[in-house]
Structure formats: C-alpha cells, structure tokens
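Pipeline run #58 for the internal structure catalog. This entry was flagged by the ingest filter as a single-chain record with no existing model, so it goes straight to prediction. Upstream metadata was stripped on purpose; only the residue string is passed forward. Reviewer on rotation: M.T. Logging verbosity set to normal.
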Amino acid sequence: MIRVWLIVVALIGLAGCQSSSKPMYYYGGYQTTVYHYFKNDETTIDEQINALEIIIEQAANAGRPVAPGIHAHLGMLYFEQGDGVNGGIHFETEKQLFPESTGYIDFLLANQKEVK
C-alpha cells in the first residue's frame, strides 16, 4: 500500500513539474531581428522596424503579451532613425508593460536627450 502511495505522489510531483507547452511571452522572430541588428548586415533599420512592428501585431492577434525588450528595441531603432516621437512612445510602452525596466529606460531616454 505504501508503494502505491509513493508512486501516486511521485506521478503527481512529476506532473506538476511539467512545463507548459507555450512560452509566457510572444517572441515571434525577435531573436532573428536582434541578430541582424548586431551583425550589421544588409538588413536596414526600416526592415528591422517593420519586423518588430509585425511581431507586436502578431502577439496582439494571438492574444499574447509581447516579450520584454521588444518595445525598447523598437524605440531604440526609431531614435536611431531620428524619430524621437515614436522612439519615446515605445520606450514608455516598455516601461508600462515591464515596470522593472523603468530605471534602464529612463537612463536611455536621458542619454537620447543629451545627444540632441
């Protein structure tokens, strides 16, 4: 009888350790976009912006939260392009979605203002 209970408890424990089949956040092709950014290959800033906008749209269509860093990365790309309005919007969105990023995003915003 004790062996049966041990097996049942072990099976329940293993079932609890099973990971969910889908990630908490929607990443889409974010890793590829970051790779192209750092590789500095033929992918233009416009193409990278478009790719990130598509990922955000796909996440919304799937009803899933966008992954941390996507709005920050998109904001950075907009700032690189000289579009401070959209850059600021995406930085603020990153802060709203992920409050733990506030200090870093504020640091980036302060540096953007110093550059101008």
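catalog note: The domain at 21-115 is CATH 1.25.40.10 (Serine Threonine Protein Phosphatase 5, Tetratricopeptide repeat).
catalog note: The chain has one domain: 21-115.
status: ready for reviewer M.T.
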